[in-house]
Design goal:
The protein is built from four helices and three strands. It has 92 residues and is mainly alpha-helical. The protein has one domain: Orthogonal Bundle (Arc Repressor Mutant, subunit A), CATH 1.10.10.60. Helix 2 packs across helix 3 and helix 3 packs across helix 4.
Amino acid sequence: MIVEGPGLRPLRPAAGREDIDLFVDLLCGARPILLKEVLDGIEKRVIIRSLWMAGGNRKQAAGILGIKYTTLHEKLKRHGIRAEKPPTPFAF
């Protein structure tokens, strides 16, 4: 299972409420567009997707992303993402 932050809630590759709120704010002009914030959000989603594709295997996820394992580890730490071993298909 791929989890995030202090609450350790499961993450899915789909867009979350934060993404929708940011999108609405940007469309309405409620706040300025911060390129760094947008790029960080994209990077985080791509990392989560690669972990999901690799079944939680960080080494494989780094390979999917074309980066070194240590670089992925730094990015996981920066984004507050924890990758745990996914349950087996037979676990209930």
